[in-house]
Amino acid sequence: QSTLKSKTKDLYPDWTPGEPVPYAALCTTFSKIEMITKRLEILAHCSLFLRQVLRLTPKDLLPTILLMINKLAADYAGIELGIGESLIMKAVSESTGRTLAQVKADQNEIGDLGMVAAKSRSKQPTMFKPKPLTVRGVHAGLMTIATTEGSGAQGRKVDNIKKLLSATDAHSMDKGVDINKDKGGASEAKYIVRTLEGKLRLGLAEKTVLVALAQAMMFHEMSEKDNKIPSTADLAKAESTLKSVYSELPSYEVIIPAMLEHGILNLPENCRLQPGVPLKPMLAKPTKSITEVLDRFEGKDFTCEYKYDGERAQIHFVAHSASEEYATAAPASGKSDKGVSNIFSRNSEDLSKKYPDILGKLPTWVKEGTKSFVLDCETVAWDMVEKKVLPFQQLMTRKRKDVKVEDVKVKVCVFAFDILYLNGEALVNKPFRERREHLHKSFIPVEGEFAFAKYGDTNELEEIQTLLEESVKSSCEGLMVKMLDGPESSYEPSRRSQNWLKVKKDYLSGVGDSLDLVVIGAYYGKGKRTSWYGAFLLACYNPTTQNYETVCNIGTGFSEAVLEHLHTQLSDIVIDRAKPFYTHSSGNKDQPDVWFEPRFVWEVKTADLTLSPRYKAAADEVAGGGKGVSLRFPRFIKERDDKKPEQASTSRMIAEMYQKQESVGKNKGPSVDDDF
Ligand code: ATP
């Protein structure tokens, strides 16, 4: 007991109870985490620090957590950092009295702008000691930078970055420190800059922070208050409670105050799904054949729904008469005389400005007595003349922001397939059959505007085959097969669940599921394509190391128009050299002509997978002697602008696909690199 307490006390001595958490204390923890790779040790450091916050300054728990996960607010608030390199370099140079050329030269040599800032700051003679930065102060400063808009915004952003950098502790990185060995130590400037870049690169996954928070809270409640040490079972309970609450209500802004007030184990009674806060959507597992579906669901009742090819939309609505149900944290975008509403994307991004036409009509689809709801839907482009679904490409031509109803050219129809909340009650734990009944009872379909997803409840192979063919004829991607009864049919937020299976028409020809990859480099074109990029270097994401691991070059599947558009789009994010968190072969001939910031995600199909020394995807997981998994004959399908780079296919997924393929023994041919 005494050891536990003293350990937390020694962490950072200059921290007075009740006073704001010193930013230097957080940076000390960051630097410890950065020096280690074992997940459990990282978790321990993180949780120890959070215990100290809980004991000394619980008021700062929220900004501390947000800085740890490198976000300024919940996703739906749409507040993003990710400030470009050139603005940051300008601010570093101006705030440390070095020339831009010196800063750029350092950046070329070190490759990590955070460390460049640390070095610049430690070289600077300081006349007076700046007032120490606090966690809440840094959070507020970053918020100001992120939300600066309008004319002269860039200049004001630079000024505000300078303000923060000038307040960092100049000597927190000792002179003469070996940058490569100790990664720049606990320098405040380093972490401020990395936060601004949108990448802390500590190897601290968001999930780890969530677990650390649960453990710290349990420790705090039991050891600090009741003088007991929690058992492993107590910690596991805290962890599963917080995880499940967070998946229904992914907002620390709502959860943390409730947890501090009611205690972690009482969270489920106090923090439930709430209209206004988007849940992380449930996802499906791919299957290769209808027989695989029948094997998986043998003896159970299931339903086969059309898999519409549009954009996922989670629609939240609360009638004025039930307004207390709406989360106060939410920015209600759609307002009508009936109530308030929002539409969120698969990423929890607020899509309300893209779909004012949907929000406008929404109240007319609602039956009398339906006061509040959260619907899971797909918005699909709709042909008003032929009265049918249009292909996905049509939907992509719609503007994303500030759409005016009168300007809408591509009409959309909303296909609702699930209801997660109705009239004050969360339905996620109810069986799907019951949820579907609620859905059908509470809304009125309107042709070309609002419909229920088509489905057939059958276990017969031939009938499923027919449904699949019909769905494809109706411009759908295939079927979503879902369990109907029992606890297995509950809605599992944020899970790629075994209880939702997708059967796409393409699987049946043996091509397999597509991958979503990040474009990080390009090669100039040859022949007709010389003025654009002719091929690109793609990478998957490794959430554990937070690195992007290369997986293939791609030059197939692009029309001339697409290549031209991509050239314009990507030219804006060219960088001088590979980011230190890109993992790629170091061979000279393997290097692309240009590198990009990791920003765009593309959907890509492949014939199969092979091992290659040129690429590094999943190299640590497949035991290929340093070779990575790579795609053979990759083909570009479409841009995935609903996915962020961190949501790209992971190295783990690619390793699994490769292992599955190997175990099936499909890939008997010689291992070859893709060629274009
Ligand atoms: P991935 O995340 O694997 O890249 P994806 O974004 O296409 O793929 P999938 O898991 O393949 O998602 O399929 C689920 C998606 O299908 C949902 O996100 C939703 O947008 C869409 N969809 C269309 N019709 C349905 C339906 N009836 N039920 C559930 N989802 C549907």
From TrEMBL:
The keyword Nucleotide-binding applies. Its EC number is 6.5.1.1. It catalyses: ATP + (deoxyribonucleotide)n-3'-hydroxyl + 5'-phospho-(deoxyribonucleotide)m = (deoxyribonucleotide)n+m + AMP + diphosphate. One of its GO terms (molecular function) is ATP binding. The keyword Cell division applies. Keywords: ATP-binding, Cell cycle, Cell division, DNA damage, DNA recombination, DNA repair, DNA replication, Ligase, Nucleotide-binding. This is DNA ligase. One of its GO terms (cellular component) is nucleus. Residues 405-542 form the ATP-dependent DNA ligase family profile domain. Belongs to the ATP-dependent DNA ligase family. Residues 638-676 are annotated as: Disordered. One of its GO terms (biological process) is Okazaki fragment processing involved in mitotic DNA replication. It is an enzyme of class 6 (ligase). It comes from the Eukaryota.
